[in-house]
Amino acid sequence: MGKNSNLAKIYLLFVFAVLYAPIVYLVYYSFNSGGTMYAFQEFTLEWYHEVVQDTRLFVILLNTVTIALLSAAISTVIGVVGAIALVNLRHRRIRNALLTLNNVMLVSPDVIIGASFLIFFAAIGIQLGFTSVLLAHIAFSVPIVVLMVLPKLQEMSPTLIDAARDLGASWWDVLARVVIPYITPGIMSGFFMALTYSLDDFAVTFFVTGAGFSTLSVEIYSMARRGISLTINALSTLMFLVTLLLVIGYYIISTRTSKQVRWGVRSR
Amino acid sequence: MDRRMRNMFLVPYGLWLLLFVIVPILMIGYYSLFDIDGVLTLNNYKRFFSPIYFSMALRSFWYAALITAVCLLIAYPTAYLLTKTKHKQLWLLLIILPSWMNLLLKAYAFIGILGTYGPINAFLKVIGIGAKQILFTDFSFVFVSVYIFIPFMILPIFSALEKLNPSLIEAAYDLGASPWVTFRRVIFPLTLGGVKSGVQAVFIPSLSLFMITRLIAGNRVITMGTAIEQHFLVTQDWGMGSALAIFLVIAMGLTMWFTEGGRRVR
Fold it and tell me: For A54-66, what is each residue's pLDDT tens digit?
């Protein structure tokens, strides 16, 4: 089949234009001295100053990053251990049942996850705040880690393990020196995914966060409900840059370790 | 791996599954059996079928179906044309990139773009139609939702098209099929798996959207998600909220069942 016709090119161009319009729009007006998202007056960095100087925002940023790093690290450990246990399960039906449960969490809408966690935390008496948000983030990040690690484990040849065993390695050695190094790319992408899931989550956090604790997404929501403020624009520009850096980092890690980059689309 | 070690490895993961997947879902079911005063009753389920709730649910389904259909209509040609571009992996990455930006920020951007003084209205003024109320309408809700979900539709269709053996299309042409017949009888059926996973990845979240409805649709549209959120966080009627959540879970199960065989969301 031939190349795309002009009409096709225009169509694709239009789709790309619409996809990027809001981002460009946000970034552009973050430099507007006029204080509105229309009628650009003069170039200013005023809104960025405001973001940097806002100590409340800084505390929220720290909360967000702390939650993201902690939840990504813990969910990676649980997910990797779980994936290893899953591939070693001999009963096929149990394995499939567990995998189905894993997928239930993945496709569950945010409101269901948020509402059910809210009930759960209330029932076992966990105060809403840092702990509840951290637990929730760990909980919804585990299945994505499992999903990223599992294919790596499955493509690993069992002869590698047999060889290590024949050469006298203990199970612990096999795990630490054969399995883990082999699946490291999967672990890295799992960690990365968990990190971005956590950084980005709004809906679940909104349910399980108390009055005294807030993350960036929740804060942006309450700011946006109050109306337009170019501080949000400046903040979002900075956040987009961070996302861009994370994606580039992920791309470099993935291309170094395998030819095919596996791109996930954000599901929440 | 020996049994003792395997079991040791299964414990944290199993515990996570139990505590954060099974128990919360069971608890939603349990709470749905109590009304706001804590009396055991099936009233919440009865209330769901009352005109107010039922029409809300139907409207929510209708919007989700509309959003999914529009996504599919735009995404399929896009995915198809993407497979024909030179640097398709790069273009695909560029399609996915906006989806990594915080959902709220995109919604927030549209408040400005679709607003009274935004560029869309400025454009409408220039071409002589004049400013219109775009924000807080059904149109803006569907538009922004499609914007948010379209990468989820493009990606699975793109991968399905990539997996398609081109010699099958050539065979169809050799046998005298027109481009349309080739598409309808060969390409589309063979990429149905991708379409199904796309539908699954768009339809379920569209049912449960709740923040967009407030920011973009100004509470004009109430989805299942909005209703659940309202019951849990505003009116504190956890029983009714749980009953609604149960129906949403059922809807989710049915959607997954109908789209089974598609690729999982990744």
Answer: 888 889 989 999 9
What value of ipTM does the predicted structure carry? 0.85
Residues B67, B69, B71, B74, CA torsion sign: negative
CB of B90 less than 8 A from some CB of A: no
Tell me the per-residue pLDDT of A196-235, one tens digit each, with 9 for 90 and over.
889 888 999 999 998 889 898 898 888 888 877 888 889 8
Domain map (residue ranges) of chain A: 55-257
* Alpha-carbon distances, residue A49 vs A215, A232, A240, B82, B156 (angstroms): 20, 12, 17, 41, 42
Residue of B nearest to A137 (CA): B20
Contact A37 B118 (CB under 8 A): yes
Looking at domain B45-258, its CATH superfamily turns out to be MetI-like (1.10.3720.10)
Amino acid at B231: H
Put simply, the answer to whether A111 touches B210 (Cβ < 8 Å) is yes
What three-state secondary structure class fits B40? strand
- A80 contact partners, CB below 8 Å, separation of at least 6: A145, A149, A180, A183, A187, A190
B78 CB neighbours in chain A (<8 A) are 11-12, 15
Contact residues on chain B for A219, CB-CB shorter than 8 A: none
In whole angstroms, give the CA distance from residue A233 to residue B161: 37
> Residue B108 corresponds to which tokens in the numbers above?
């927030």
Determine the topology of domain A55-257 in CATH. Answer: MetI-like fold (1.10.3720)
| Contact B49/A at CB under 8 A | no
What ranges in chain B are assigned the alpha helix state H?
Answer: 3-17, 23-31, 43-48, 51-83, 88-96, 103-113, 119-126, 138-163, 166-174, 179-182, 188-190, 192-208, 211-215, 224-229, 238-258
Chain A residues in contact with B117 by the CB 8 A cut-off are 36, 38-39
B235: helix, strand or coil: coil
Question: Considering the entire predicted model, what is its pTM?
Answer: 0.86
